[in-house]
Amino acid sequence: MTPTKPTILFIHGAWHQPWMYDPFLNELRSQGHEVIAPELRCNDYKTYADPAAADITFFSGLAEKLAEEGKEIVCAMHSYGGAVGTEAMHGLGVEQRRAKGLQGGVTRLVYICGFMVMKGYTLDAAAPDVFQYQGEFKTFKEGQDVGDFFYCDLPKEEQKRLVDAFVPHPKSCSFRVPQVAAYEEIPSTFIYGTMDKAFPYKDQQALVGALTAEGIKIDTFTLESSHSPTMSMPKKTAELVLQYA
C-alpha cells in the first residue's frame, strides 16, 4: 500500500482571503497532497468578541480533528498566520500525541515570512511604522503604498488586484500575548524573504536568532522575495514546503 501523503494545513495572513494564495496552494495540490486552507475567523470579526482567540481555537480544533483521523500534518503559515499557528498547534505535535498513545499530528511548522511570535510578546511590538489603529481596526497610514509593502516583486496591476480584495483586520489581534509556543515541541522551518517590507529581513533574522539562542532548532531557507513569496514565487515556495511533506 502506498503511504498516505501528509495533509498540508495552511494559515493565511491578515487582510487576505484564502483564494489569494491559489497559485501556491495549487502547486501543493498538484503533488497529490490534501491541502486545507480555511479563512481566518478574524475576517468575520463581527462574530467574535476575541478574534485572535477565535482563530487559534478554530485552527487548533481543525488540526486535532485531522490528527484524530490518523493524518500527519504539515502546518504552513504566512505572516499573521504564523502567530495563529504558533499557539494553535501547541500540544498537537505527532511526537506529543504518540507519547499519549494517539495517532496523527503535526510533523512540521513552516513559517513563510511568518510571525514566529515569542511568548510574552505581541505582534504590535515588532510592527513597522506604517500602521495605524482606527477604532477597532488595524489599518495603514495615509499615503502608504500598500501594494508595494506586501508585494514589491509583483506587477502594479497584480498588486492592485490583491489589495482591492483586502478585508478589515481587527486591532486586537496585534495585542494578543501568547503563553505557549508550538515551535518548542514541533520541528520548525523559517522561509526568509530578503525584500520583505512588512517583516524586514533583518528582523526575521533577529527573531530566528533569538529563538535559536533559546535552544529552538529552526531550519531556514532564503528567497529573494517580498513579504509574499506565496504570490510572487508560488512554485519555489511550494517546493520548500514539500520538502517536509
Automatic annotation (TrEMBL):
Limits of the AB hydrolase-1 domain: 8-239
InterPro entries membership: AB_hydrolase_1, AB_hydrolase_fold, Sec-Metab_Biosynth_Hydrolase
Highest taxon above the source species: Eukaryota
Keywords recorded for this protein, A-Z: Hydrolase
Secretion signal, residue range per the UniProt entry: none
One example GO MF annotation: hydrolase activity
Keyword hit for Ribonucleoprotein: no
One Pfam family, short name: Abhydrolase_6
Gene3D superfamilies the record matches: alpha/beta hydrolase (3.40.50.1820)
Protein known as: Alpha/Beta hydrolase protein
Source organism per UniProt: Echria macrotheca
